[in-house]
Amino acid sequence: MSRVLFILAVVATVATVISAQCAATDNVNCASWVKNGFCNNPGYTEAYRQQYCPNSCTNSGCGAAGATTTTAATPAKENANCPKWNEDPTNAFCASQSAANIKTFCFTTCAKEITPVDGCAFYVDTAGKVVRTGANKTAANDDTVVPTLATATNKILYAYAKTGCTVAFYAAATSPATPPGLAPDLVGAGTITKVTVAAQQTAAGITCKCTA
Ligand SMILES: *[C@@H]1O[C@H](CO)[C@@H](O)[C@H](O)[C@H]1NC(C)=O
Question: Where is the ShKT domain (predicted)?
């Protein structure tokens, strides 16, 4: 019993010390100090930033306190595990998680999913690591096949088509594509779609046709 109380007391003390370093509000002069380089001036210690501009200095180490009073929108973070999560075929983080999750937790690793620049993309399990390949074909009648290098063991897990683009899957990676492809085509809606048709998972090539 006394031991539990002791531990609680220690925890409470530590918590008090941490919050005591970070002032609840910024000094009224913070805006102008920050403009003059206060936050990044090596002459000022972190303790100074925590005492005077805990919210305005993003490097104050005061964490969430800063996010509440500044204009911070979604606190975008890059978890150190993102690259590992994203190459895991059972997770493939950027392709399989919600838009909110990839933005909140892996905004750097998932940059291509957050702001898509490619007309189409596909994700292949390449010897246990997920590899994303983007493809651009601007002409609606472009039937150049992009090789996927997918096989029975290295399957296509996901595919993406921007609105206005269509991904079609082919058994061979030879151009021009010879219709019909391996149905159904993925008609672009700007979302990443799990490839569930077995023949498509091992498709050797895709085409990406875009109207715009
Ligand atoms: C597709 O086109 C966009 C815009 O021009 C470009 O940023 C992107 O890198 C291209 N993607 C590929 C895979 O070539």
Answer: 22-62
Helices (H), 88-155: 93-96, 99-105, 111-114
What the chain holds in terms of domains, given with CATH numbers, is 2-77 (no CATH), 78-115 (no CATH), 116-210 (2.60.20.10)
Task: For residue 89, report the distance from its CA to the centre of ligand 1, in Å.
Answer: 25
Ligand 1 pocket test, candidate residues 117, 120, 137, most atoms within 8 A of CB: 117
Q: Give the residue, by CA position, lying nearest to ligand 1 atom 3.
A: 117
Give tens-digit pLDDT for 149-168: 999 999 999 999 999 999 99
The parts of the chain modelled with pLDDT lower than 70 are 1-20, 64-76, 212
Pairwise CA distance, residues 184 & 160, whole Å = 14
What is this structure's pTM?
A: 0.66
